[in-house]
Amino acid sequence: MTVSSISYSFQKSPRPTIVSRLLQPLRHWLDTVKIDNRQQAKLICRLIPSQCPFERDIQFFGKTLFHIPPMCKLNPLYEEFVGLRFRSLCFLAEVCKEDVSVYCR
């Protein structure tokens, strides 16, 4: 088998779904939100959690029975929310010179 005979299925980009096309304006808006206000940045950092609140280990008498994986990545706007929170944290740390460790778990 030669390298040229191997087909790579991941090279083709999938067509955007209708949900993806419908969410595109919202994604663009979230990516272009300007953080220029201390109260706005603090509110965003409080509203968007640093870790998925649904991830859990279910234990019984100290033994882990099962693990509930993080569900946040199922959110189609996950990357945009994480980016918005990151920009808010950077604004608070760099511009406002605040300690942002209170917003990180």
Give the termini separation.
Answer: 50 Å
Low-confidence stretches: 1-10
Order of helices and strands: HHEEH
Proportion in β-strands: 5-15%
What value does the Rg take, in angstroms? 20 Å
- Tell me the number of strands: 2
Question: So what's the overall shape?
Answer: flat
Mean pLDDT: 84
Number of helices: 3
| Main β-sheet, spatial strand arrangement | 1-2
Question: Largest sheet at a glance?
Answer: 2 strands, antiparallel
Name a few traits of the molecule.
single chain; 105 residues; alpha+beta; two-stranded antiparallel ribbon; 3 helices; 2 strands; 41% helix; 10% strand; flat; disordered N terminus
How would you describe this protein?
With 105 residues, this protein is α+β, with helices and mostly antiparallel strands. Helices cover 41% and strands 10% of the residues. It contains three helices and two strands, in the order H-H-E-E-H. Strands 1-2 form a two-stranded antiparallel ribbon. A hairpin with a 2-residue loop joins strand 1 and strand 2. The N terminus is likely disordered.
Topology diagram in text:
Blueprint: H1 18-32, H2 38-47, E1 56-60, E2 63-68, H3 78-95
Antiparallel strand pairs: 1-2
Helix pairs in contact: 2-3
Short description:
The protein is α+β, with helices and mostly antiparallel strands and 105 residues long.
